[in-house]
Amino acid sequence: MTVTNAIDPAARPLLDLDRKPDGLSAMLMLIGAAAGGLGLAVVFLKLLTEGHAAFNTSSDMAWGAPIAFYLFFLLASSGLSIVASLDTVFGLDTFFPIAKRVVWLSIITLVAGFSVLALEIGHPFRMLWALPLAVQVHSPMWWMGVFYSLDLVLLVTKFWMMHTGSWHTQAAHRLSIVSFVVSILAPGTLGLVFGMMAMRPAWYSPIMPMYFILTGFASGVAFLMFFTSLMRDHDKTTAEKRLFDSILPRLFFVSLLAVIGMRFGQIITGLWSNFEGMEAHWNALGSGLFQVEIWLGLVLPTLLVSTNGLRASAVMQWLAATLFMVGIFSARLELLIVGQKVPLFRGYWAGFVEYWPSLTEWMMVPAGMGIFVFLYGAGNWLLRLSDAPAKAH
Amino acid sequence: MARWGMVIDLEKCTGCQACSVACQMENNRLPGENWQDVLFYNEGEYPSGKLTWLPRPCMHCENPSCAAVCPTKATYKTADGVVLVDWDKCIGCKYCMIACPYGVRFYAEEKQKTKPDVRDVWPASGDKMWNPPWRMPEQTRNRNWGIGIQPKNVVSKCTFCYHRISKAPKGTADLSGDDPKTREMTPACVVTCAPTARYFGDLDNPNSQVRKLIAQKRGTRLLDQAGNRPQVYYLAGEQSSVPETRSTRKPTS
Question: What ipTM did this prediction achieve?
Fold first, then answer.
């Protein structure tokens, strides 16, 4: 990791095409291209031959795994955007060495999420004109579309300003403030998409926006820690070492504790309530997704970063971040299922709605992750992600 | 302008499903994707066990949550009180299916519950999901009303047979299959109902039969606490009841 701010950024090429990709970037691009290519090929083939009948969704389980994957990426993006604001909005200079990298991560997780959504939704191209023309202010989904579109534009602009060396201009600061506000509003309205649904009691909660923002933040820190733990020590400056070995894992630890507290509240409320529809929470206790979320995704990572010694280890950081990402991935899918598990009016003979994603739906995982990993590798190679303003050092 | 509504007399309904079949035929529904269905509930055991049933079309709510959540305004309420889907605006996000408290919306682009898959038997052409040999409303296919054979990747729902009721002259109080003058303007499920358990008319007209039945026989609405204010009313009388819940939990006593 080198700080290149000694050179006038404006004088440098936009892309470092003359430089050969380093080993890590090349490997990530290769893995990303292979996984993304495989995932997209299978999904496209299935959609072309079977249409959306290739999914295991039904009129009772209208939203399936792709929506969960979409949540996974979009909320992580918002979390990363909040992390990116710690320095540019709140003046925590410690985070400047990772500011540009975080903004890039935020952009590409958003791109991966939008890609998954485009594969899931019935008419993605119709959405492009029908959504802006409708101005349906009563729909939380419409607002979510507005804020996430705005989020992408702001993040790209913010990245562009960093890339061209405009770190401390007034325009950059104002842009960062607006971007931060939108990075709260976007996951918040995504939370409302679920939390406002009184007819789905297992989702209905004013806490849902806060849950999405908080788990998004924890996901963002996990994404970041996953990649920074892959960097070798001699690539880091002293300030960066402190950030990577101490501050980031501490932030992760605290956010994990907050997520655990909030989840406990949700679970205990769900199990206690007699309100119809809430029996889905009892049903969820027996699901593998729930066990993965709680034990592998929350408890184990918390233990892995619970002491100073453990936190400083890059291996532990990588492991904790990976486990949390797997856990939160399960949690998103579990959330989708729990709200639709109890059918609407179907009579007593219907029972719980059964659902497990099809191969096509699962292949959205390598598709989305592949796009994300490839873009990260490409950015790491071409976009000087370690750039930081002089003030940070 | 009328505000169309339906009354279903549960004491007269025999649960024969003729309404469901008539709807299937009239609206070219895929098997299992029933805009109109009859739900069954069993409670208790012999000798005091009880089997009840509930015919369930779309409720065409006064305050439809499906329309409120639709991000493209594809779902809308007409001036005469009917909730429709504009297939040319629907993006297939399925949010309306999440937000409808009654589960009466259908995507249909999914694995078929019955074999053989009729979509393979009568393969699709053009924008249609399938190509059945019978097509009664096909002659009046209207994508903006969500009527006719369902296209791929959009949501569909009961339209109160809007292609029929929209032909009713202004000021019509009741639409009945028994009256030759209104028979062709009456929803298919109402026309076909052998015990005449279904009534259809203008809820805003104090002289309409539906209004009188609601007033005189204590018309109730399903899941009224949801706040959607259905325009379908049930007459439970002394012999029947509207299910209190949609739950998977059967009563324990």
Answer: 0.92
Which residues from A are below 8 Å from B154, CB to CB? Answer: 122-123
Test B69 with A141 for CB contact under 8 angstroms. yes
> Do A324 and A249 touch, CB atoms closer than 8 A?
no
Topology given in CATH for the domain delimited by A65-343+352-356: Formate dehydrogenase/DMSO reductase fold (1.20.1630)
Provide the 10 A C-beta neighbour count for residue A22: 13
Kindly list the residues from chain B whose CB atom is less than 8 angstroms away from the CB atom of residue A279.
Answer: 247-249
A140 to chain B: closest CA residue:
B69
What is the per-residue pLDDT across A337-349, written as a single tens digit (0 to 9) for each?
A: 999 998 887 777 7
From the candidate CATH numbers 3.40.50.2300, 3.30.70.20, 3.40.50.10580, 3.40.50.150, the one assigned to the domain spanning B4-235: 3.30.70.20
Phi-psi region of B237 (alpha: psi -120 to 50; beta: other; left: phi over 0): left
Chain A residue with CA closest to B89: the answer is: A130
CB distance A365 to A39 below 8 Å:
yes
**Cβ of B98 and A277 within 8 Å?**
no
Structure tokens, B149: 């054979």
Q: Which residues of B touch A198 (CB under 8 A)?
A: 226-227
Residue indicated by tokens 């569909």: B156
Contact A17, A382 (CB under 8 A): yes
pLDDT (tens place) for every residue of chain B, 253 residues total: 899 999 999 999 999 999 999 999 999 888 888 899 998 887 778 898 888 889 999 999 999 999 999 999 999 999 999 999 999 999 999 999 999 999 999 998 888 878 888 888 998 878 888 888 877 765 678 999 999 989 999 999 999 999 999 999 999 999 999 999 999 999 999 999 999 999 999 999 999 999 999 999 999 999 888 899 999 999 988 777 777 666 566 555 4
- Chain segment A312-355, per-residue pLDDT in tens: 899 999 999 999 999 999 999 999 999 999 888 777 777 889 99
d(CA B35, CA B53): 16
pTM of the model: 0.93
Give the integer Cα–Cα distance in Å for A121 and A133.
18
Radius of gyration of chain B (CA): 18
**Residue environment code for A294-316, b if the CB has 16+ CB neighbours within 10 A, otherwise e:** bebbbeebbebbbeeebbebbeb
